[in-house]
């Protein structure tokens, strides 16, 4: 059965949050995804559903401060459903939504999360140059808090459209 991508709803929070740390390989991620994202950013967030079960999600928003930017805060796919383009399809829905008015999509990820770095580069994100680099990928040390390094990824929606 192929998965359906649909807009997120507040009730989607509960089934997602109980699985979050498992989907992130046991890393404690839950504190970074409070319910407010599903209550207040559902219109610009998406879930992937297969047989009524959520197997992936993307939480994003149109930047209130920067009218050219959209931002993706979280994207995750059930480990049993990876490598089937669900992450790509979630992003494609967000790109389509953001392209109506925004020029770039931004997100950040840890330079140690090599799958996330490969995934975002595979989708066409480019790392913003930074003061440090790991395996050729620039990053910003201590970007979030001390010890929390981040790669800053940028995706140009306008260039994407003009290249067909
Ligand atoms: C990152 C993640 C969302 C990818 O989801 P996915 O549905 O498996 O990815 P897709 O099948 O859509 O892959 C799209 C492209 O990303 C790249 N990619 C995805 N997984 C990859 C991996 N394990 N290694 C290398 N490249 C990978 C490939 O270029 C792939 O394109 P291809 O299949 O044509 O080669 C998923 O692995 C995940 O949930 N990881 C844990 C959570 C996380 O780290 N999220 C991101 C940080 S917030």
Task: Characterize the structure shown.
- With about 160 residues, the protein is of the alpha+beta class.
- It has helices spanning about 15, 20-25, 35-40, 85-100, 115-125, 155-160; strands at about 5, 45-50, 55-60, 70-75, 105-110, 125, 130-135, 135-140, 150-155.
- The strands form 2 sheets. A 7-stranded mixed β-sheet has the order 1-2-3-4-5-9-6.
- β3 (about 55-60) and β4 form a beta hairpin.
- The two termini are about 30 Å apart.
- Residues about 160-164 have low confidence and may be disordered.
- The protein binds coenzyme A.
Report the mean per-residue pLDDT as an integer.
95
Total strand count, please?
A: 9
Major sheet: arrangement of strands: 1-2-3-4-5-9-6
- Biggest beta sheet summary: 7 strands, mixed
Look at the helices and sheets and give the structural class: alpha+beta
What is the 3D form?
Answer: globular
Number of H- or I-type helical stretches: 6
Present as ligands are: coenzyme A
Helical content class? 25-40%
Series of secondary-structure elements, N-terminal to C-terminal? EHHHEEEHEHEEEEH
Parts with pLDDT < 50 across at least 5 consecutive residues: 160-164
Percentage of residues in DSSP E strands: 25-35%
* Rg on CA atoms, Å: 15 Å
Q: What gap, in angstroms, lies between the N and C termini?
A: 30 Å
């Amino acid at each position: 059965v192929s998965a359906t991508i649909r807009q997120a709803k507040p009730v989607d929070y509960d089934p997602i949050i109980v699985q979050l740390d498992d989907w992130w390989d046991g890393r404690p991620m839950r504190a970074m995804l409070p319910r407010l994202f599903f209550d207040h950013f559902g219109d610009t967030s998406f879930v992937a559903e297969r047989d009524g079960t959520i197997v992936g999600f993307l939480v994003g928003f149109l930047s209130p401060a920067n009218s050219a930017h959209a931002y993706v805060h979280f994207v995750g796919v059930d480990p049993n459903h990876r490598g089937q383009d669900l992450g790509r399809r979630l992003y494609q829905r967000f790109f389509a939504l953001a392209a109506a008015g925004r020029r770039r999509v931004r997100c950040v990820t840890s330079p140690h999360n090599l799958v996330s770095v490969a995934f975002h580069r595979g989708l066409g994100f480019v790392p913003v140059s930074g003061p440090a680099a790991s395996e050729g990928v620039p990053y910003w040390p201590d970007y979030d808090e001390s010890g929390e390094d981040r790669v800053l990824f940028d995706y140009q929606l306008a260039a994407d459209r003009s290249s067909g």
